[in-house]
Amino acid sequence: MKIAIAADHRGTEVCEQLQQWLRQEGYEVVEMETCQGKACDYPDYAYPVATAVAQGQIERGILICGTGIGMSISANKVKGVRAALVHDEIGADLSRRHNDANILCLSADMLGQRIINRIVETWLSTAFEGGRHARRVSKIHAIEQGMSPNTVTDAPAAKD
Predict the structure, then answer these.
(1) Which residues are catalytic?
(2) Distance of CA 73 to the CA centre of its chain
(3) In sequence order, what are the residues at sequence separation of 6 or more whose Cβ sits closer than 8 angstroms to the Cβ of residue 134?
(4) Closest residue by Cα to residue 11 from 66, 88, 92
(5) At 112, phi and psi to the nearest 5?
(6) Three-state DSSP class for 4?
(7) What are the residue boundaries of the structural domains of the chain, listed by start?
(8) Rounded alpha-carbon distances, angstroms, from residue 152 to 53, 140, 157
(9) DSSP notation for 18-55
(10) pLDDT digits (tens, 9 = 90+) for 63-87
(11) Which of 77, 93, 63 is nearest to 3 (CA)?
(12) What would the pLDDT profile of 42-59 be if each residue is shown by its tens digit?
């Protein structure tokens, strides 16, 4: 799996450690850009990863900033991106199984490296369930097109 990764100044150290760990685990890692620890603006680093994922050049992306919030907001502005801010393994699992998240956003300030590795491992190994969740993801696509999600009727009906 090809993974793009980027961080702002607050996430640089975590990003470097995560890249090393991912490569040891056998993933192909593409470092899109980092600011090498110098003050920078997170949207400048979220955009290239989000664009590469949305265009299908990269399978998944990981973005890291101080809280993960700025990266998540920025990445989700790119059509086709479903970026999830995750703080634990449960969130990592559900963001993939239920939401088909294609970008993982992490907090460098609030999470330790061990939990980050566990979150990433869970997120990368979890598949999208489809089913009723596919209809919901289709509704997200409708919103991206400027349409009401109520117009989506071609995906499986909800069972709950």
Answers:
(1) 65, 98
(2) 11
(3) 128, 155, 156
(4) 66
(5) -85, 165
(6) strand
(7) 2-128, 130-160
(8) 24, 10, 11
(9) HHHHHHHTT-EEEEEEE-TTS---THHHHHHHHHHHHT
(10) 999 999 999 999 999 999 999 999 9
(11) 63
(12) 999 999 999 999 999 999
Q: Which two tokens stand for residue 76?
A: 């989700």
The residue whose two tokens read 């209809």 is 135
Annotate 67-132 with DSSP letters as a single string: SSHHHHHHHTTSTT--EEE-SSHHHHHHHHHTT---EEEEETTTS-HHHHHHHHHHHHHPPP--TH
Amino acid identity of residue 44, one-letter, is D
Residue that is written with structure tokens 């949305």 in the block: 54
pTM over 0.70, yes/no: yes
Could you tell me which CATH number the domain at 2-128 has? 3.40.1400.10
Only one residue has tokens 């993974």, namely 3
Place of tokens 């995560």: 18
Phi and psi of 151, rounded to 5°?
-80, -10
Which residue is it, tokens 């999600």? 149
